[in-house]
Amino acid sequence: MPITVLLVDDQELMRMGLNMVLDAQDDITVVGEASDGAAALAAVRKLEPDVVLMDVRMPVVDGVSATAQILESGVASRVLVMTTFDLDEHAMGALRAGASGFLLKDTPSEDLVSAIRSVAAGDAVVSPKVTRRLLARFLDDGPGPLRDPEVLDVLTEREREVLQLVATGLSNTEIAGQLFLSESTIKSHVGRILTKLNVRDRVQAVVLAYETGLVRPGS
What's the pTM value of the predicted model, to 2 decimals? Predict the structure, then answer.
């Protein structure tokens, strides 16, 4: 079955361009479009797409609110946010709301297609460099952790170490090399971390690592 995608953007030309790129793929089908968050929520309920490609700055209902409402509705759709600016408070809000990652709108088409496939498969997609910059800007505005660090007590020492490295933007392959472990072992650790912390994907785990003070911006 092809990956079904809902395009959400208030610019018609942007939707047209995305449609052309995605419909050229044998394994991806665009099943609908929406020009604002309210229309997106209605379309998700009707179409239940695998992936929602969501703009964040839109009229009526913005992408952050729409993302939160979509994920709270209980549908299986995953949200991939697109933004024009790499330091975008709206993008950070979308990550906190449960988005599976975000891309810049000038992302090459092949990277966009790869990201959609990854998100549909249950992975999270986000540029480590941009993630660190966003978190550094929007999570380092208080004197202490935003969440009780005790939520991490369920993790073993090794799992905490892996989470720290995930939060710095390293891939499983890079973490495996740094810890002298196999990539499959790291993948297993990451899976257990997500389960124990009850988070949707590694993007949410990164946010939690920063919010609890396990990793600080600039570290």
Answer: 0.71
